[in-house]
Specification:
The structure is a homodimer of 335-residue chains. Chain A has helices at residues 5-12, 16-23, 31-43, 50-57, 73-88, 102-114, 132-139, 163-176, 192-207, 226-234, 249-261, 295-310, 317-320; strands at 62-67, 92-97, 120-122, 144-147, 158-161, 182-186, 217-219, 243-246, 271-276, 289-292, 321-324, 328-329. By secondary structure, the first copy, chain A, is an alpha/beta fold. Chain A folds into 3 domains: 5-48, 434 Repressor (Amino-terminal Domain), CATH 1.10.260; 60-160 and 295-324, Response regulator (Rossmann fold), CATH 3.40.50; 163-292, Response regulator (Rossmann fold, 3-Layer(aba) Sandwich), CATH 3.40.50.2300. In chain A, the strands form 2 sheets. In chain A, strands 2-1-3-4-5-11 form a 6-stranded parallel sheet, sandwiched between helices. In chain A, strands 7-6-8-9-10-12 form a 6-stranded mixed sheet, with helices on both faces. Chain A starts with a helix and ends in a 6-residue tail after the last strand. At the A-B interface, helix 4, helix 5, strand 2 and helix 6 of A face helix 4, helix 5, strand 2 and helix 6 of B. Chain A binds a DNA duplex (16 and 16 nucleotides) through helix 2 and helix 4.
DNA sequence: CTGAAAGCGCTTACAG
DNA sequence: CTGAAAGCGCTTACAG
């Protein structure tokens, strides 16, 4: 049987209240009692019961993380960043995945609510068009922070990349390299970040008086087979793009492999720029030019914001919505 | 304020006991009452409080996962597999990282204990040589299952790859390709899986009467810079290996990039075989031959085993220690 | 089939 | 500085 506060109290013939105070650094407690209790607790291998404490104090000491998929390098690193801050605060995390699926997302939110997490860091799935489940979160006074992928219409803090600007810079880089016909392999259409990156792409083309050709733009879905899509984009030698800006590094890598298979050379025939600056960039050949996207820093920032809300600290308006500027890391795929 | 069972009871002028029974599908409850309670709960947006229920029943409905790092593709996929089974059981997971650090591992085990998880799936860090913290787990009757990386001397279920055999097959493949001098870039020396893969390598060499040259073997640490190590292995044209079997795909990729930088050709001058058959294999050029290592299946198996222990089901001895056989997936790096 | 009561392990306002 | 008491939200043995 696990040792409880009562066992320690009995052992020392004092009250459980005193044991609790000694263990929790309560101000009104004599040094001697405290030392004695702490030592006895250790000897008896006492492990605090967070669950019982949480029930009493109505603070579970846990926060929820809900991401589309944990196997994505970006989200895995983000969780890493979040957990650093969370454990500094003595909290633990409950991590859920939506698998890019709306219904899973709704279920997971419910489950987090039942776990009585004190807050949630949330990246919406690419399948989510309805935000009732987030209103439920609000109805239960559970604070949340949007991370990277943001649902419109909520007055909660957000941490995201400056996707528009990052995309703009990526395309500007391709233009300055002398590329004439720049295609875009976009992300899932419902995602705000897909739109922002697409708009950044458009804006760069406009700024430099490039013709906008809708045939050079395709939005992908995560469950799609992208091979045929990429092939179609490059099959006609007359109309094919000489450069490609993709929504993600994963897509860029797929594109590079496919383009090479089609007998074209990267970057000579087609330059490619990805988004994310992930570990894949240095592995693929040619190495991939990419827009930075800092998951760890963003995760840290999101967790810090969430704790400010939990602790009801004032957040100055300009800190409510953090955007990380990106830069283009130039590698061989666009050199 | 959150809605409780008591609020529903008041609303319907019945007792909280009855509400609880209705919500939990208790056998002795009239259909009408049940329907009414379930409907009212929904209308009132009741969310069960797992924490309170857990305190009362002494079942937290949670299990802990402790892995070296969540950003590793292998462990991220394993967590994915584990979570499938865990949510089927109506449980949730608390995921912790040791960062390949013994002290973090000890802290995380304590934290899981305080969360009163009902079981732990555990992959020990490459820094762990002392297993007292695992004895603590046992002392608290918290069942655990070793996943992939196993500490010796515990009578708990294990799920692992057949590392010895996988390594043997990898090296045998290189031998059958006519390679004469096969090096090994090993993993962290403390890990059992490093030893097993090394021993499989040795055994293959012995079986085929190859000379064993200790200069062709290096054990790495995760925090090391492997560049110089690889460079040293290949700098002397007379003594350099014409094939390399590595502990992981990550190391294989590093090796390929470095070997190419040294002006050597893969696979002509040096064949390379990795371990893990991860997503990197198809991305690197040349594509990487690798030994399969099925994280999702292994995660599923570990979770199923853990629930059998939690539910005190009998586990036939031959199911206590599951070993996944591997095969070699041949790609261009050894063709 | 339903209710009153006890209690899971803790914390904390109140009293001394 | 310490203790007795109440209570967090639930479940369940007991009684009817």
């Amino acid at each position: 049987m696990a040792v409880t506060i009562k066992d320690i109290a009995n052992e020392l013939s004092i009250s459980p209240s005193t044991v609790s105070r000694a263990l929790n650094d309560h101000p009104n407690i004599s040094k001697d009692t405290k030392t004695l209790v702490v030592k006895t607790a250790k000897d008896m291998k006492y492990q605090a019961n967070f669950i019982a404490a949480g029930l009493r104090t109505k603070r579970s000491n846990s926060i929820g993380i809900l991401v589309p998929q944990i196997t994505s390098n970006f989200f895995a690193s983000a969780i890493d960043g979040i957990q650093q801050i969370v454990s500094d605060h003595g909290y633990f995390t409950i991590i859920c995945q939506s698998n890019e699926n709306y219904h899973d997302e709704v279920d997971q939110i419910k489950s987090l609510l039942s776990c009585k997490v004190e807050g949630v860091i949330l990246s919406i799935s690419s399948d989510t068009k309805n935000y009732e489940h987030l209103e439920t979160l609000q109805a239960y006074d559970t604070p949340f922070v949007f991370f990277d992928r943001i649902a419109p219409g909520f007055e909660t803090p957000t941490v995201e990349a400056n996707d528009f600007k990052g995309a703009f810079q990526a395309v500007e880089h391709l233009i300055k390299r002398g590329r004439k016909k720049i295609g875009h392999l976009g992300g899932p259409g419902l995602l705000g970040i897909s739109k922002s990156r697409y708009e950044g792409y458009l804006e760069a083309l406009k700024t430099y008086d490039y013709e906008i050709n809708e045939n050079s733009v395709v939005f992908t879905k995560s469950e799609d087979d992208h091979g045929p899509i990429i092939e179609k984009m490059f099959e006609n030698p007359k109309t094919r793009p000489d450069a490609l800006f993709t929504f993600s590094d994963e897509l860029a890598v797929e594109a590079i492999l496919k383009i090479k298979k089609l007998g074209l050379n990267v970057p000579r025939d087609v330059s490619v720029v990805g988004f994310g600056n992930s570990n894949l960039c240095e592995i693929v050949e040619p190495s991939l030019t990419s827009v930075t996207h800092e998951p760890i820093e963003m995760g840290v920032a999101a967790a810090e914001l969430l704790f400010k809300v939990i602790e009801k600290k004032h957040i100055p308006p300009h800190q409510m919505h953090i955007k990380y500027d990106s830069k283009v890391i130039i590698r061989d795929s666009s050199r």
